[in-house]
Each structure stands twice: as structure tokens, then as C-alpha cells.
Amino acid sequence: MNTTRHPFRFGVLAGGAKDAATWREQARRTEELGYSALLVPDHMGQEWGPLVSLALAAEHTSRIALGTLMLAANLRQPAVLYKELATLELAAPGRLEIGLGAGWLATDATRAGLPFEPAGARIRRLDEAVSIIRRLWDEGTATHDGDYFSAAGAVGEPRPNPVRWAMGGGGPQMLRTAVRHADIVSLSARLSSGRKDNSFGASATAERFDERVRWVREAAGARIHDIELQTLLFAAAVVPDSARYADRVLSRMFGLPAEEALDSPLALVGNADEICERLHVRRERYGISYWVVPAAQLESFAPIVARMAGK
């Protein structure tokens, strides 16, 4: 049992909308429904640009946290990214959650004209990038000469307020890196194929999440009590018959037997009472309190948010 217990909170992951007016309304609606955060992905497909999206949302909301899940460090120079993030923080003071990742999707790199490096190299690249960005944020200057990035007297201007940092993944190297830098550690499956397929399923089981929590706790030591554990749901559905949904949808999606897929922390399926019970059980087992649902479930999960947020 995990003894660290943070209050439940919920975010929405949204990659854009059909037009700017719809995006603004979605941001307002996410806030109205009591979600804690509006988060955006960072991919080179049809998704909107993450930082411009959040700047638009900042102008039409007042309380909700705005964040990235996750910005791919391999696509940007860290000192340049710092300036964009710092400017965004000034547009939404006190509300920014900066999620930084190693870039798991191979097509993002190739579409950007970059090599898709092995996972270990991408994680080391991320480690360097975060070190530079956080030094600029916290100290106002950075000089760095590393294996992947260099910065000669980079200046941390404009000066932003403190923010919350998020990182995560499914393997030990990534999770240990996250613990070194982040306030929010996001637990996921291993996405080692570099593609959107169901090969993640074998690493999505409840037992594999037990292992990830152990890695995080060992790396964090006493700081585990200050770390908020997050999970992005790959499947979320309020339905009357969870077993039937697992058999028809989850099993194929996860490449697992239906019962194992339903028990995965990456799936949250059932009627409202079942889902609320699953949330309590999973917080006790894993310590996960921050749950992110896909934008398509914004409205259907609102009653769950109303019942569980802050408890």
C-alpha cells in the first residue's frame, strides 16, 4: 500500500479544435466543469501547436491550470523553449504546469527532419534540456556544454513565477529522471515501439504499475510525499456494463485479456459508482491521485469530477 495520499484532481488532454472559437469554449467549459487542468500534447500530426493553444486558453480562463503533456525535448533548443514558456507563464501567472518528455513517437522526429534516437539517448537529451531550462527558471542564467546541448551565458528573461514541473514514462531510466526534476511524476506504459499500436499492453498491467511505483519510491526517498503521481488514461468510459466494454473494446485496444485490461490503471471504465471505487482503490495501491481524461470524455466524466475532486 502506498502511504502518500494527495487529494484527487482531474485534467483534460486536448489537442485542439475545429477552430479558435471552439477551442476557447472548450477551455472555458473545462474550467466550468471543475477540472483542475487543461493539458495539451506535442505531436507533429493534426494537433495544434501546444504553446499557442495554451496562450489562447489563458485569455479565456481564470483559474484552471494550463500545461503540456508532454513537450518533446528533442524538437526544441532548451534556451529558446525557456523564453516561450516564461512568456506563457506571465500570460497565466501561477497556473502553468510544464510537462517535458523525451519524445516517444517516431513520426514526430522524422516529420521534423530529425533522427529518432534510441530511448536511452532521448532520455539523456531530455535530462540535459530540463537542467538548462530549470537553471534559467530558478537562477536566471545558464552556461552548459553537454553531449546534446550547449548554452553560453543564456539569460533567463523574462522572469517568470514558480511553476509545477511534470515528467514521466514507463521505464526505470525515464522515471528516475522524472524524480530528479519533477513535482508531478506521470506513470504510463512503455511506448518502446515508437508507434501508436497495442504493443504497450504487456507493460500496462496492474503488476507492472506496482513495479513503476516501486522505482519512483526508491528514487525519491523522503521526497515521495511531495511528488504527485499522475496517469493519462488511454481508455475512459462511463458505461453501465464494464465487463462487456472490456471484452468488446479494451481487450483489443490493450492486446490483453479483458479482465487484465479493465484492471490496468490506463483504463477507467464502469458506472459512476464503480469508477469512484476504482479511483479510491488505485490511490491506495499506487498513490495515483491526478487523473487525465481524453477531451472526448470531458462531459461524461464531469459527474465523477464533481464527486471526487479534492477528496
Plain-language structure description:
It is a single chain. This protein is of the alpha/beta class and 311 residues long. The protein has a single domain, classed as Luciferase-like domain (TIM Barrel, Alpha-Beta Barrel), CATH 3.20.20. The protein is built from 11 helices and 13 strands. An 8-stranded parallel β-barrel has the order 1-2-3-5-8-9-10-13, surrounded by 7 helices. The protein has a two-stranded antiparallel ribbon with strand order 6-7. It has a two-stranded parallel sheet with strand order 11-12.
Major sheet attributes: 8 strands, parallel, barrel
CATH superfamily grouping: Luciferase-like domain
**Ends distance:** 18 Å
Number of strands: 13
Q: Would you give the CATH topology?
A: TIM Barrel
Share of β-strand residues: 15-25%
- Average of the residue pLDDT scores: 96
- Helix count, per DSSP? 11
The radius of gyration over CA amounts to 19 Å
Question: Strand sequence of the main sheet, in spatial order?
Answer: 1-2-3-5-8-9-10-13
Q: Structurally, how many domains make up the residues?
A: 1
Tell me the name of the CATH class: Alpha Beta
